[in-house]
Model the fold of this input.
Amino acid sequence: MNELQAQDTDTWDVIVIGAGPVGENAAQYAIQGSGRTAVLIEAELVGGECSYWACMPSKALLRPIEVLSAAHALPGVLGTRLDPAGILKRRDAVIGNRDDSGQVEWANGAGIDVIRGRGRLAGVRTVEVTEPDGTVRVIEARQAVVLATGTTAAIPNVPGLAAARPWISRDATNLAEVPRRVAVIGGGVVGCEAATWLSSLGSSVTVLQQAPRLLPRTEAFAHELVAKRLEEAGVRIRTNAKVERVERPSVNEAGVGRIHGGPVTVTVDGEELAVDEVLVAAGRVFGTGDIGLENVGLGKLAENHAPIPVDEQLTVRDVPGDWLYAVGDVNGLALLTHMGKYQARVCGDVIAARAEGRPMDSVRYRDLADSRAVPQVIFTDPQVAAVGMSEREALAAGVDVETVEYDLGAIAATSIQRQDYRGRAKLVIDREADTLVGATFVGPEVAELVHAATVAVIGQVPLELLRHAVPSYPTVSEIWLRLLESREPRVS
Done:
């Protein structure tokens, strides 16, 4: 059954509201290898935020910058300049020019139907869909409804900011013209990544961070290394910055990724900053406001745009009957695409097991990673790769903390990778259990280091045993050996 033929029925085994990667995974795992049916409800593009407006376009913009940075750091390599037009053209190719026909084809090939429209819960296992032409239809699920409605960009309540029609992350990742001067409000992941590519493409960038440092949830040395490199690239960073008001006399409807009007004046700590565009990178709003939660007894969540609480099976709490699930950003556990897809796989397996009456004693049917092993890579220059708890988080959780740190630039492989390599690594250890609870790596191309740390954290591998995992030479993985050697010997 394809996208058009989906109009011929009003009942499926599984209904998924939201057809991003998370919703797609939930539908796939819930029905694969069975005769069950599933349908995706999507008001925008099948493939969702990650495919067109977040992960994929942002990394497509950042990769040429990484390559150029490596080339600059290697004597003997010639040809070191960026081609902004070529970068934007490649970005468009990576996101399929925002054409989701391939995603729909994948869904149909997996036996998943697609309905275009906005889905809302209308009752138990019942969904109301408002289609693009305004037609409203009611559909029902035999087994489960999955909410995968994600988040949207937050606009802080600063006088004049919303009226100025600032850029949000979608504009920054899908930029069609490069502003001469940009103020980035927010110094978290989105703000730092966007500052990296905007400055490399020619913008004069000022980052306005309300907190005392960039990337406040990471280890302190991540801020130090990322801030130093951004400043070397010409980015101005203002921490402890209070944005008091924004003024833009001329506003237009230029569209996503185009400058939204005339010059902007941003008042920060009593000083006026003149820019051509403002990018807001100050958090996300949960997609719970208009999905019919009031029809299943969760109206307060909708009123407050709050995340939807779930249990380890991703079943929504306080809704009886084990039929409603929430996966991805909308449940607030970890606002990361890979974690949402992980949750969707667990959720789909749970739906399948419940549909077939199978026991769910295995850890396969529990979300374990969100409570102990969430990995993340920030694709700035240098990269920041981390998993589990920071030292501060571990101490707050009452862990008997031991830490070890090491200079990544002292590893033989990094001197091969580039001259003057700057980076650092840190392990956060539960001293009593002798297991890793967190790890952070900052440096060029450290993204590939984090999965080994993720395995060690989720597997609760004793560090004395981890010493027997021998790193290949000469690779940056030798950092594991150096970190473990840096520990004080354990007294038995």
In short: Residues 382-485 form a domain with the Enolase-like; domain 1 fold (CATH 3.30.390.30). The longest strand covers residues 136-147. The chain has three domains: 5-47+100-152+285-369, 162-282, 382-485.
